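Q: How would the structure tokens look for this protein?
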Amino acid sequence: MNAYSLLHAAQLKYEAQIAEADATLEIYLNKSVGIGEHSDLLAEVDKYIELKTSAKDKLETLLEMKKAENSA
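A: Here is the predicted structure in token form.
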């Protein structure tokens, strides 16, 4: 596996984490079906906001690295 493959895999991972967080937050905030399973909804919302924030930060860093690599 080369560096491009690793960076591409990481990019897909972060994009998937963002999509997972968005979908889960959508359910928690707009669909009552998702609320019944979790007694501490605030903790769950916080967990997925943290996941999304972390993944977005990592994706941004990765894209900056790829841009720098392409500019070199």
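The two ends are 22 Å apart (CA to CA).

Residues 3-71 form one domain.

Upvote if useful.
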